[in-house]
Amino acid sequence: MRRPIVLLALLVAAVLGAMAAKCWLIELPPVRASNTNAQFSAERAAERLAFVLGDQRPHPADTPANDMVRGKIVMLLQSMGLNPVVRDQVACNELFKQRGVSCARVRNVIAVLGPPAGKAVLLNAHYDSTAAGPGAGDDGIGVATLLEVASILRQQPLKRPVILLFNEGEELGLVGARAFLADPLSQNVGSLVNLEARGVRGPANMFETSVPNGAPIALYSKAAAHPVANSLGTDVYRLLPNYTDVNSFSERKWLTLNIAPIGNETRYHSAGDSLEALDHRTLQHMGDQTLALAVGLANDLPANASGERIFMDVSGQALISLPLIVGVVLLVGLLLAFAVIAWRRGKIVRGIGIALGTMVGSAAVAWVALAAIGAIRQGMFWRAEPMWTLLATYASVVLAGVILLALLGAKADRTQLRASYWLVFLLIGGAIGLLAPGGIIFFLFPPLIVLIGMLATRWWKPAEQVAAWLAILFLYFTWGAMLALLEELLNGGPMWLFAPLGTLLIVPVLIEAAPLIRNAGLKASAAVTGGIVLLGWAAAAAAPAYSADRQQRFVIEHVTDLTAKKAWLAVVNDGKPVPAPGKWTRGKLAYSDRLRWLAPMEIVAGPAPTLEAIRTGRTIRLVLHANGADSISLVAPEKADIRAAGVEGFVRPLDPSAKKQKYYVGCSGRSCDGLKLEIEAGNDKPIMFTLVGAYRSLPPSAGPLVAARPKNARPQYLPDETLTLSQIRL
Fold it and tell me: How far from 125 is each of 44, 108, 180, 194, 682, CA to CA, in Å?
């Protein structure tokens, strides 16, 4: 075998090895073996959390299980010498970015430390879980962190009061946070640290701030010893439909920092979100950051920066921050410089074609491969072992890049291709900056390093090539770390998206190796990289789809439509066919737009919620009768015109930005029985509602389906439930 071919194979292996090793960039250090009284102890926090969660049963808001959790939190706070209070009230909140309002009886636990006067620091976490799991991560990690921080702060002198808020009802639509805004204590708050979770491992990311972000970023940069945060992430988060308690608190304009781990979302909102799965290193990282921020805020740590800043961490070791305007000016300057250099060096079209062609070509290869495997295996076949699918995707980038370099780069030297690539890199950064200005930070320093090297060649000839490799190294430790976090965040797909993202890391390496690719030749290069791609996708296709750690989502519902006198068994999963007998088809039901597997069933007689209603013009007043239902929902069609809903004192407007959606008004918990609701319509026309009652158990007729549920499958986001539907015209 020719030497260039061997070297090319080694290069591809090295590139893929580096892409696989990105996960180490976000790996956390071991938990400290010992701590002083002023340091956060993950082990002490974990012990308290184990006590609070007890037998780890799900504990949704306003249930006996959550009463037990709340009682233990109060007990622990009292044992520290604090005097917690429990605020008990029925409250409602709008569902952000949805046409809905959710109500529940919530009991917020509040404890105050420090002096009685001064603008307070609010530390917030919610103690309710979903009905599908014990919530050790979401948000047990926040509860454990606040308890440990409380035990430390109570021994320290503080210049400002610190309010610890353990709120109830976050999982129902931030109901506890809305209730706190009606509490007199909220009037004295000046800053907020919110603790959340979307996983059970990995670094605790600071993913949201108040706007403008100058002051919170200055504080975070000074306080956090191992920062994990970037302004691209915070900007993108604002565009997503996700929400936390911060959405409710944001109207107060407090200085805000929002922190959460995102590692292994497959356990999130499921029975897998357990004490055993929660990584103590993640708890340590969240605790260290929270304690440092709380101490800084409570003691007036200087954070005098203003305006909007762009920022990124370098593998959790340091935070780089710039004013946004400086970033924009620098980006424009670099764009102009590389445009001139690329034009003067020539072959600019070829260089641009290689960069953009690799993005498009690799995405196409990955999309086709994913579609082909998905047609055979169906479902999220990569869920158990996502690394194989990711490596196959990145191998597709190498294939596209090598072929285009051999074709378009054959008559261009490395200096020409280098200048053109970094020009494309900057153009992409500018395009991203139009949607998410915080993303600019990732596109400044690598081309700046290369530009410095280009200018330095007049004094030292190898300067440009050395700078090019230094730029790649810097790119790896910043963009690569961010990409590793994104792989965790987007584990549900679309997986082909990692091809264009990976291109930004891989193509500059291939350009520096262009002479090697030319020496190997087009046919040999295509054969070597193509063979590796085939092996990669074969491994992705052969890897198990689900495992004990990363299970398939598989929710079973028994649904009875009392008006239509029909019943179904329904399965909510990732689209994989149901492994049970029956006439299963994909479809929707009246209460949701989500596709489900449906099979007709015999009607099972049972209880169903009812209501009393009086309508006066545009106002509908209701009294709910739960009849044992754990939650009750009123669903109205998209064309209905509903403006607000809630209970007295908490009639909330519906999000006006949410369009082309059904309307939802719901209540969860024991206190729904007898609850008085009010709905404000936009006109006096009758509205046809679907009344939905949910019972967190299944009838015996669902037993065969429960038994047929795959070994590595469990309910996620929703519990197994029995649902009743009835049509009511109001």
Answer: 18, 10, 12, 6, 36
The Cα 20–Cα 222 span in angstroms is 32
Which residue in 490, 472, 367, 485 sits closest to 425, CA to CA? 472
Tell me the pLDDT tens digit for each residue of 684-712. Answer: 999 999 999 999 999 999 999 999 999 99
| Token pair listed for 223 | 């306080």
* Helix (H), strand (E), coil (C) string for 374-387: HHHHCCCCCCCCHH
What CA dihedral angle connects 634, 635, 640 and 642, to 10 degrees? 50
Provide the b/e sequence for 643-659 (b: ≥16 CB within 10 Å). ebbbbeebbbebbeebe
Are the CB atoms for 338 and 422 separated by under 8 Å?
yes
According to DSSP, the β-strands at 201-209 and 255-263 are antiparallel
The gap from C-alpha 135 to its chain's centroid, in whole angstroms, comes to: 16
The answer to whether 519 and 410 are in contact (CB under 8 A) is no
Architecture of the structural domain at 32-91+108-307: 3-Layer(aba) Sandwich (3.40)
User: Distance between CA atoms of 107 and 88, rounded to whole angstroms?
Assistant: 4
Tell me, what's the pLDDT at 247?
A: 94
Given a contact cutoff of 8 angstroms between Cβ atoms, the answer to whether 127 and 166 are in contact is yes
Name residue 510's amino acid.
L
Distance in angstroms (rounded) separating the CA atoms of residues 37 and 54: 26
**351 and 342 in contact (C-beta within 8 Å)?**
yes
Query: Which tokens go with 161?
Result: 């009061």
Residues 62-87, mean pLDDT to the nearest whole number: 98
Whether the per-residue pLDDT at 443 is higher than 90: the answer is yes
The pLDDT of residue 639 is above 60: yes
Enumerate the H helices of 521-567 as residue ranges. Answer: 522-542
Structural domain boundaries in the chain? 3-24+326-542, 32-91+108-307, 551-730
With a cut of 80, say whether residue 302 has pLDDT above it. no
Per-residue tokens: 37: 């009284």
* The pLDDT of residue 599: 96
- What is the gyration radius of the CA atoms in the chain, in angstroms? 28
Tell how far CA 574 is from the center of its chain: 18
Residue 182 has pLDDT above 80, yes or no: yes
Can you tell me whether residue 425 is helix, strand or coil? helix
pTM value? 0.95
Cα separation, 247 vs 555, whole angstroms: 28
Q: How confident is the model at residue 6 (pLDDT cuts 50, 70, 90)?
A: confident
DSSP-assigned letter for residue 572: E
What is the mean predicted confidence (pLDDT) over 501-517?
95
Label residues 688-704 b or e (16+ Cβ within 10 Å = b).
ebbbbbbbbebbeebee
Q: What is d(CA 540, CA 549) in angstroms, rounded to the nearest whole number?
A: 18
Mean pLDDT confidence for 661-668: 95
The answer to whether 106 touches 650, Cβ cutoff 8 Å, is: no
Distance between the two ends of the chain, CA-based, in angstroms? 80
Query: Quick check: 93 pLDDT over 70?
Result: yes
Query: Mean pLDDT, to the nearest integer, of 327-348?
Result: 96
Task: Check whether 301 has a pLDDT greater than 80.
Answer: no
* Distance separating alpha carbons of residues 254 and 209, to the nearest angstrom: 10
Backbone angles phi, psi at 87, to 5 degrees: -95, 115
Average pLDDT over residues 382-396: 97
What does residue 481 show for φ and ψ, rounded to 5 degrees?
Answer: -65, -40
Distance CA 273, CA 265 (A): 9
Q: CA-CA distance, 402 to 513, in Å (whole number)?
A: 10
**Adjacent-strand bridge partners of 613:** 622
